[in-house]
Structure formats: C-alpha cells, structure tokens
Fold:
Amino acid sequence: MDDLKYTPLCAAHKSLHALMAPFGGWEMPIQYTGIIAEHRWCRERAALFDICHMGEFIFRGDLVADGLEDLFTFSVKSIPVGRSRYGFLLNDRGGIIDDLIVFRLAEDEAMVVVNAATSDNDFSVIRSRLKGGADFTDISAATGKLDLQGPSSREIMIAHFGPAVGQLPYFKFMKTTLLGVDAIISRTGYTGELGYEIFLPANKVVELWDLLLADDRVKPAGLGARDVLRLEVGYSLYGNDLDETITPLEAGLETFVKFDKAFIGKRALEDQRTAGLTRIKVPFAVSSRRAPRHGYSIVSGSDTIGEVTSGVFSPMLGYGIGLGFVPPALAQTGTPLTISHEKVAMEATVCDLPFYKGGSLRS
Amino acid sequence: MEIFFSKEHEWVKVKDGIATIGISEHAAHELGDITFVELPAVGKSVKQFEVLAGIESVKAASDIYAPVSGKVVTVNEALETTPEIVNDAPEDAGWIAVMEATDLSELQNLMTKAQYEEYLKNL
Structure:
C-alpha cells in the first residue's frame, strides 16, 4: 500500500475536528459533527464536500482519429460543448474499470473525471488505447474539486459568483473565473439534490472552501453523509457496487451503454446479452430500521442467491435500503427477499429507484 | 446509585437486585449516529457477558453484552422509534433494559467509574 495522500484541505478538516479515515488511497474526512446531521443539512440546505481526491485528465486532439471516441460506453463526439455525460471504461471482458464523466470542453478538448482509487490505472489504460498525436495529461495533482450540494446551492452560488451560474441546467457546465483563476462550475453531483461541482487550481481550494463556509447556509459534510446521500437515490459506488468483475448489464446500468458505437469490451457485452444474465443488481427495501451492509447474503427460501453490494439505514425513509445481486428471475419489483448475516435475518422487498424521491436534483 | 462498567463498554446500575443496563458514553460516541436497537425479549435469561441485545449505527452493527446474569424484566421501548436517545443520553434516558440480577457478586468482574476511565485512557 502506498502512503496516504492528502488534499489541500487536510488542515482545514482537522481544525473542524473531522474524523479522518483512508478512502481510495487518500486521508479523507468521514464526518464533522455527525453523519445524519450532515446528511440532513444537504437535503434541506447546502453541504460542502472536499472531493479533491478524484482524478481529472485532459484530452486535446481529434476525438475520432485519436481514438477517444471508441473507448467509453458512450459517445464523446456527440456531447455538445459545455455539457457532460456519464458512463463506463470497460476491460475486454466487459468488466467495469471505472465509472466516469466526460466534460466536452471544446471541439477538440475533453476532461475525464474519474474515481480516486482507480485514477492511475484509468490513465494508463486510456493512454495506451489512444492513437496519433493526441495530448493526454493527468491534471489531478494540480486540480482541486469542491461539491456544493443541496436545495439552497443555486442561490448561494449566485450570491457569490453571479447570476450566470443560476442558468445552468442539469449536466451542463460553464468555464469561468473564480478568485481570479480559471475554473469550471458544473451542475452535477452525487447526492440527488440540486448541486454543483467546482473544479479549480488546487492552490485555490482552501480560499474557496473558506469563502463558502463563511456563508451561514453552508456546512461541511464528509464521505459518511455522501455515502448515505448517494445510496438513497440509488447511485453506485465504485469498489462496492462496481468493479472489474461486474459488467454494466449485470449492474443494471445498460442505459449508459450505447451498442451503436465502438467501445472497449463491446464484444463481451454483446455475448453476455445474447447468452442472458445469470445475475442482476436490484434495489431493495428492508421492513425495519436494520441496515443491510456490503457482503451480507441475499436468501430466497433456503438458498443463498446473491450478495449485498451497498446498504444503509435511510434517514429520509426510516428503514434500511440496499443494492445487491439476484438471479434475473427474482429481480421483479415486489419480489420478497431475506437479507442474512450471521444470526441476523431481515425481510426485504425488491423496489424501484430512486429510494428517496424528494430530492431537489432537477429543480 | 453506583455505576459499573464492562470491558465491552456496557454500564449497569443495581438497586435492590434490579439492574439497569446501557452502553457507555464512550461506546455511543464511537458508534456514531445510532439507527437501530434490537431490544431483548422480556423474560429472556442471559448469563454475564453473553449477548443481550444488538445495536446499529450508520457505520456499524454491534452486540451488547449483559454486564450481569439475570432475567430481562423491562426494555426501553422508546428506542424502537427513536434510537438516537442512546446518543443523546447513553447513561440515562438511553438505557437499554432492566434485569433481575441473579448474582450480585458478579459486579466484582466489572470496573468502577474511576477504573473504567483509566481503562479508556489505555485503549
């Protein structure tokens, strides 16, 4: 294991008495005052997250001739400049190397935003597949990222950075100047709430963090709250719900795979689609306040049929929720399941996403 | 009423052979936001240091062990809908269960408050 990495905000987190823990090779804040209080603040007001651990790459070249267009499960060339798109980088077996977002910065320029733990490998896989004279650079170390998420985030962003940001629709971004430097503000996030992701030079992150936290409407939130928030709306977490042994079809994320274009792993996915799936990821709700957790067994009758990949107590719903694998025959909404771990058994039912439907995401 | 603590961070207060049981301030803080308490059945008999109840937080699921042997006579039913009381007042309103203790000499296997505070320093 390599040494832990630290974001520019490490001292700021410590001064807020954050509980710190390793995540994806980084020392990150798990909570400040408490996971549920931070979660609630994000659902009701606006929470600020240090997301500097995530990776960013810049591609400059011909999207098609240099091969970027043929790598991911979605088309990059059809993303309008100023918009972004979510999808996957797969291995040749169709397994998910990473889930990522591509931002179309210009006709011949794109930014790829990836998970922290997978960042170095993603960069070498992508670079090894690019052709021609494309310029492909890992800017992660020089790039900071803060997420401001919650129903009040738009009015807060407008108050600090001007009215233009208020016009951004979901999955659109703007290049702008913040604190005197170039920055990108994107209307995206990982919480199910109206929110923004802000990319700017790493050496300006502390200044932006202090500026936003000085606003009474903003409180910091850690990765603990972020995990509850993302699962309440059914988003997958790489390393828990997705990995190189899981295909997007098995993950129930086929909607982010475009079979009318080339991508790494396409042949394997086509074969899997023809042969039929042996397992598929489903969302389920528990009938009590008990939380299912990663690795718990899913049981039907007396047979173990699958495994929980993520689970949590939902503070918004008041019961346990989770994602896990089941055989396709047991994937229909309403199918009863038992979640089992040692002496604990929980009754659960396959349900629809999102679990929590009250978010301000598209407001 | 004197309070005793176990190494697994349960507390017990005994009066006239009736033992009130909960988890310590330290345990509640370490668990973080408590989301579920699996209360024992009234009438259940347990021996000292056997599993009495279960507790879950956002972060983890843990067992609660009986600090003394006995039979459960009352449980804190308020925890079924508002388990966060355990975070707010772990050594008071956040009590878990009341037992009829069968052997008060077992208190010798526990720590006094001063001993427990010393024990926490060395964890």
Summary: Chain B touches chain A at residues 32-33, 35-36, 38, 54, 56, 58-59, 61, 83-84 (CB under 8 Å). Strands of chain B lie at 3-5, 10-15, 18-23, 34-38, 45-46, 51-57, 61-65, 70-75, 97-101, 111-112. The first helix of chain B runs from residue 25 to 31.
